[in-house]
Amino acid sequence: MTLTKEDIEFIKANMADWLVEQSLGMPPAVYEIELRERMVRVEEELKHQRELMREGFAQMEKRHQELREDMLARFEQVDKRFEQVDKRFEQVDKRLEQVDKRFEQVDKRFEGVQQDIRELQRRMDRFMVWSFGTTVAVGALVVSLVKFWKP
After folding, report:
1. 0.90 surpassed by pTM
2. Rounded Cα distance, 107 and 78, in Å
3. CB contact at 8 A, 115 and 121
4. Chain centroid offset of residue 50 CA
5. Would you kindly state where each structural domain of the chain is located, as residue ranges?
6. DSSP letter string, 66-126
7. CA–CA distance, 71 with 53 (Å, rounded to integer)
8. What pLDDT digit, counting tens, does each position of 16-38 carry?
């Protein structure tokens, strides 16, 4: 048995009406099938959503890992800079130690100069005492000679 074009057109035209009549005649079965189909579609959509969420979480994890690696690299750079700063401080400490040694040398020189000044002051004091004594003695000698020579 073969179908003609007219038969196929008739079936196409009336198929929708027949299906509607069939579903109205047995609503619980059709309703149950439709519900099952909807449940299958919802489950498939949930599965698809779950896959999308997994992909999103995987991308977030990847981005988080990249950010973590970037942060670690930056911390390493900061650590290197701190090491450089520490080296500079060590150099400054060495220079300050050298300056302290120079100050100690200058202090020793000042102590030597101070000792020399004290010695010079002591000599000047002795010279002043001798000079004063000599001046008084010569003055007394001149006064006594003038007194004896007065005829």
Report:
1. no
2. 42
3. no
4. 40
5. 5-148
6. HHHHHHHHHHHHHHHHHHHHHHHHHHHHHHHHHHHHHHHHHHHHHHHHHHHHHHHHHHHHH
7. 26
8. 777 766 655 555 566 678 778 88
149 versus 115: the higher-pLDDT residue is 115
Work out the mean pLDDT of the chain and round it to a whole number. 87
Distance CA 66, CA 109 (A): 64
The tokens describing 6, both together, are: 């007219």
Handedness of CA 32, 37, 41, 43 (dihedral sign): positive
Question: What burial class does residue 30 get, using C-beta atoms within 10 Å of its C-beta: 0-12 exposed, 13-18 middle, 19+ buried?
Answer: middle
Please name the amino acid found at residue 81.
R
Angle at alpha carbon of residue 57, lines to 54 and 61, rounded to 5°: 135
Three-state SS sequence of 4-73: CHHHHHHHHHHHHHHHHHHHHHCHHHHHHHHHHHHHHHHHHHHHHHHHHHHHHHHHHHHHHHHHHHHHHH
For residue range 94-115, list pLDDT tens digits in order.
999 999 999 999 999 999 999 9
Q: What is the Cα 142 distance to its own chain's centre?
A: 92
